[in-house]
Amino acid sequence: MEFFVIFMSALLVNNFVLSYFLGICPFVGVSNRLDSAFSMGMAVTFVMSLAAVVSWAIYNLVLVKYGLEFLEIVSFILVIASLVQLVEMFIRRMSPVLYQTLGIYLPLITTNCAILGVALLAVLKQYTFAETVVFSVGAGLGFTLAIVVMAGIREELDAADVPAPFRGAGITFITAGILALTFMGFSGLVR
Amino acid sequence: MGSVVAAIMTMGAIGLFFSVIISVAYQKLKVEVDPRVEEILDVLPGANCGACGYPGCANYADAIVKGAPVNRCSVGGMEVAEAIARIMGVSAESMVRKVARVRCRGDRERAVWISEYVGIQSCAAAHLAAGGGKLCNYGCLGFGDCERACPFGAIRVNERGVAEVDENVCIGCGLCVQTCPRGIITLEPVDKRVLVFCVSQDSGKVAKKACKVACIGCGLCAKKSPDAIVVENNCARVVDADKVTDESIEKCPTGAIVRLGSRN
Fold it and tell me: How far apart are CA A45 and CA B250, in angstroms?
């Protein structure tokens, strides 16, 4: 039950994009097509889960042991940057098309604050290893959910008759705002 | 002091750990890049102007290896096309060089001015504000947006207040074409020596009132050279420059059709 609460909390109630407003850059940047949005979500989920787990291990097994907790941010960033490098090489090798589609947003996962946020929050909340896994996967899927919903709406918006001043970034931000409002509806789900 | 040493040691160890993993992964996951891409990239001018239709030189190099035509680079011209063709082992098809032409000759004396624009000194701003000072909506505004857009210094606003292209310098990248808020600049083959230097789509009466050298769409030229000139939307257009007779150029009541001097 505990795991379920942590998972749902990270997925819906405290959705990293729509409730914490972390990781907005890829959320807006890669959400114009459904399939690339989904791949981006998967890439972020992968990096997020791995980063949180490795960060957890480094924090609890190394930093705490030597009383070096103040190094958490530096070492976490190191972890994230290395993982993104790995993912980038992997995607480039496995799917050049996806590599082209994600473009600059792939290396930008490095600076995606949602990922550092998950790693830091997991440590801050003193989660156990298993809880960290559940939390980070939930957060990653939450990001995927948000970006996929957004991409679905934006694909429909392409066909809509948007008033000229709102076209492009304007209507995108308004959509994101309304989406965030609707996610407020989940707030009673977990205390 | 002890914690500083410990911190350095720890970060060093973590860093080393990840660098080993990444370098191993790099060896395993290395992507084989066609060596020709690098060679072609060296030959291309590196201006990244986008005239070839690809976002930059690197993308074009990629596309060539996948089978795109080798002669798209108008910056490099024949020379580069031939060099790429050698790398790719194909023959470079002849490429017609295109240059930008400013399709307006309505300078200070010829065009009618109805107001004085004193706002931000750029064509885009003037065009947005009230269409600048000229009565003609198809006239060159003369604030030099194109001059600033041109990376090669090939276009400039002349002393008569109308933009002018130096065809010997212009490489036909099309940046000025995109920049001009009025769409007056077009890319034309450099050997097309007869052009209608007006793009006004106003009716003859309005166009005549606005500028002495406007094309009024009367069609006299098209009557004299039916295969070479067509009139569309109140404006004549040269289809085949070689077939335009001198008679039809002389017939133009406003002198909007011009035969350019032969190229040196």
Answer: 72
The answer regarding whether domain B11-95 maps to CATH 1.10.150.170 reads no
Spelled out in words, what is the top-level CATH class assigned to the domain B191-264? alpha beta
pTM of the model: 0.54
Domain with CATH 1.10.15.40 in chain B: 11-95
DSSP H or E run through A81: helix A72-94
Q: What percent of chain B has pLDDT over 90?
A: 11
- A-proximal residues of B, 21-50, CB under 8 Å: 21-22, 25-26, 29-31
Residue B242 one-letter amino acid: D
Does A158 lie at the interface with B, CB-CB under 8 angstroms?
A: no
Residues of A in contact with B24 (CB under 8 A): none
Using alpha carbons only, what angle is made at residue A116 by residues A113 and A118, rounded to the nearest 5 degrees? 105
From B43's Cα to the closest Cα of chain A, the distance in A is 24
> Rounded to an integer, what distance in angstroms lies between the CA atom of residue B240 and that of residue B146?
27
ipTM: 0.73
